[in-house]
Amino acid sequence: IWFFNLFFVFIPGCFPSCLITGPVASCASKKLRSVPPLPRNITHLYLEMNYISEINSTSLTGLEELQELDLGRQRVPLVIRNEAFSGQRRLKRLILGFNVGLQLEPLAFEGLSGLCDLHLDYCSLNDSILSGPYLEPLSALETLDLFGNQIMKLQPSLFFANMTELKVLNLKLNKIGKICESDLIGFRGKRFTVLNMNSVRLKKMSNYSFDWQKCGNPFRGMSFETLDLSYTGLSVGQIQHFFTAIKGTNITHLKLSGHIGKGFSFNNLPDPDHRTFEGLKSSSVFSLDLSQNRIFALQQGVFSPLRDAVTIDVSQNRLNQIHRGAFNGLHGHLKMLNLSHNLLGEVYSHTFVSLANLRVLDLSHNHIGVLGFGSFSGLSHLEALNLAGNSLRDLGFPATLPSLNYITLNDNKLTSVRTFAWFAVNIVHLDIRGNRLTNLEDVYSLVTQMKPLQRLLYGGNSIRWCTPGGQVGLNKLELLDLHSSSLQTVWALGTCLDLFDNLGNVTKMNLSSNGLRSLPQGVFKGLTSLVELDLSSNTLTHLQSDVFPQSVKVLHLASNFIASPDPASFGSLRFLDLGMNRFHCDSNLRSFLTWLNRTEVTLSSPAQELRCEFPLRFQNVPLLDYQASWLRKE
């Protein structure tokens, strides 16, 4: 039965087998014990989580158009017989993953000469999957996923030389004890896009008596775009030996997470030093990822062998010290440095002095409480600086950063912005949300003094007063975030009512969660370019008809107390959010309800979801139901 190109196929019995949508058959979790009868045009067949125990040469008869087949996670042991896929010349992707105890006969994959992706993850497979004949027919294979198997010896057969398209190999969480040159001859000549050896515990290579010279270079004749050697169990000294062994191997991105480093307050394990990466000197490493280790100190010249490194990530370590000269050798080529989520407490003038070409520096979520005089010296090309989540009370007197245009300082303890304009004269984006600033005068001074500033995120500060020294001067501000800034308190005192008068370039403004009970007359008159305004989570009870500039197209008023909104306030809008507004359902609401039924404005919450809050007898009644009731009465 065809119905909008969708029909069901039933197996004789009491339950439907598959949902067919065009050439796609979804048969997952249907308690199937064999491949069901299906239309011949099926190209994508999903049979995961069934009870299929065997695939043989007749199982897929009539399905010669298949391009993708998923047989993963069968709930019974699965056997793939010889030539089970002999008719599947078009099959590109085969998923057999999470079939614990999977049995493959030697010619199981015969006929799959066009297969590109093979997933055999978590199938209890042993060394023979690579050393035996199973994969030989797969001459077009590009991706091989062997995650979580029982491979103990990595000895690929020589026929892998014929798999010229093999680019991605996942060996994560296998039990390979060592990898040596004589073992990996079958991979020689490979240009891997990804080789994932994460959590492959190289126990034999971790032995102090291991003969590195005899082992040779396991990666001889290979190159890697991404090589993941995380959690291999190798110590810093053994890693140094390993890199020496693979000297000259091209590695674009190297990931090395795990247990490297001595950690905080321990001395029994060393941190990496200038010798650790010496073997990578000629490997053209573009990106080094040392995140999620236990490095406590960056030693002098630790990265100096990395002559081509553009990105280094040492985030999520125990980093507390950066020795003088730690970044020697990176001058002129390192552009991105991530030191976030560590234990750094201060920044000195010499800390980054050798990183003249650095563009992005992430120091977020440390414990930085002070910036030493002249800190960040040498970073003349730095464009983005992230200091969020630290303990800074003020900026002090860091070096001027003429190229800096993006800085985040949210979630610190800042009480003053006095030196901001001097420190970063060309800032375009400034985020100082969630600090301890108390005077709204900061907005006047920042916008006036920092001429290029386009985005100011100031919300979440505990504003107590406003003592402006004058009007906002000429500026380029386009976005202003003043959420949770106690504007009701400030404006109730009659201060800072001219805050927005000269912000004619602002297109987006956030004034949510300010406890606003009303909007002062003319407070938005200077916002001639404003397009989006967020006034959600306030306590507004009414809106003047002319309070918003005609330029406003998007208005957020969710979670307010606007009892009877005046449709005249919404004349210029294209989008309106009134979700969770507390409407008062009486005769004063009629004009709004009439507008609601006729408007072409897009509502974030459908009209059917808007409900009465007051009076009590109408509480939680949908507005449209309330309208229908008084229309019936009339």
From TrEMBL:
One of its GO terms (cellular component) is extracellular space. SUPFAM superfamilies: L domain-like. Residues 1-16 form the signal peptide. It holds the Pfam family LRR_8. The keyword Signal applies. Keywords: Leucine-rich repeat, Repeat, Signal. InterPro entries: Leu-rich_rpt, Leu-rich_rpt_typical-subtyp, LRR_dom_sf, SLRP. This is Toll-like receptor 5. It comes from Salarias fasciatus (Jewelled blenny). The gene is LOC115402297.
